[in-house]
Design brief:
By secondary structure, the protein is of the alpha/beta class. It contains eleven helices and five strands, in the order E-H-E-H-E-H-E-H-E-H-H-H-H-H-H-H.
């Protein structure tokens, strides 16, 4: 018996964008759109009413923007959905703020249908969708280079530090397992330790914490 389809909410102030996204998603048997919103306030309401697995969230919307909506959704639900920011510009400061607020990753509106579908499925299973170069550039524009290292940095083991560096490159647990020459369960354990020590909800938050906490992204 097949699992139920992943439930998705679309939040974008442009009806044509929502219509296009719905058409792409609902052509897939494992995905279904359970609600739409034209602004952040409506997104919060729709998400609470429909309890989706994934939200595709535009960041620039009237009234409550996607950043505030992300904060309200993640802070106000016992089991919140995974939020994927959909944006026009990868260097938009709004994107960085949305990632800081708890979004699991971001995708450009010019992405192909295949990239969109892959992104939804990826974050639905608990992974993060990061574009390392873009996140590094965004962090450089927002983080004070002279800031002292956060206390958690010194508490990382050498292997946990290696895992965090690989997380920042966007590698999956399986890819990190191959890179480090250890089993997938070992990587999963290290990732969990990194999340705990950085106080992060997920991998995206851990990478943001690394940049903001003065963690050395280069080994040695």
């Amino acid at each position: 018996m097949s699992p139920p389809p992943l439930r998705v909410v679309l939040a974008d102030d442009e009806r044509m964008v929502r219509t296009a996204l719905r058409a792409i998603l609902e052509a897939e048997p494992d995905l279904t759109v359970v609600g739409e919103a034209a602004d952040g306030a409506e997104a919060v309401s729709v998400v609470r009413a429909t309890t989706p697995d994934v939200v595709l969230m535009d960041v620039r919307m009237p009234g409550i923007d996607g950043i505030r909506a992300t904060e309200q959704i993640l802070g106000g639900m016992a089991e919140p959905p995974r939020i994927l920011v959909v944006t026009t510009f990868e260097n938009d400061a709004y994107v960085y703020d949305a990632l800081r607020a708890g979004a699991a990753g971001f995708l450009l509106k010019r992405a192909s249908p295949e990239e969109l579908l892959g992104a939804v499925r990826l974050i639905a299973r608990g992974d993060s969708l990061l574009f390392p170069t873009a996140v590094r550039s965004l962090a450089a524009a927002h983080v004070r280079a002279a800031a002292p290292a956060a206390p958690w940095v010194a508490r990382l083991t050498d292997r946990e530090a290696d895992v965090l560096r690989l997380m920042a490159t966007g590698l999956s647990n399986h890819e990190m397992s191959e890179r480090l020459g250890v089993g997938p369960q070992t990587v999963k354990t290290h990732v969990a330790a990194v999340l705990a020590k950085t106080g992060s909800r997920d991998r995206t938050q851990a990478v943001i914490a690394a940049y903001e906490g003065g963690f050395n992204m280069k080994k040695g």
